[in-house]
Amino acid sequence: MNTRTQTKIIHEGNHMAEIEVELTYTDHDWSPYLSLIEAQKLDQLRLTLRKNNIKTASRLARIYHLTPVVVA
Question: Residue 14 domain-assigned?
């Protein structure tokens, strides 16, 4: 069983977050997969962004504000 860190991107509203998670690689067909703790980390980040709690979200990941661009 090997683990590797990968950056995941989460979009919620006008925000985007980059979070590091550990993927577990095995010989099973379901490989690679997230551990329960890593999945909960993603869920917590998604909920904090949904609540617009940027301060808490910034402790978990790198947060970006997305601005739509209008091309005339």
Answer: yes
Residue 37 lies in a domain: yes
| Domain count across the chain | 1
pLDDT at 1: 81
In a domain, 46, yes or no: yes
Q: Is 63 helix (H, G, I), strand (E, B) or coil?
A: strand
Q: How far, CA to CA in Å, does 67 sit from each of 32, 49, 56?
A: 33, 16, 21
Tokens found for residue 7: 């950056």
pTM of the model: 0.85
Residues in a beta bridge with 70: none
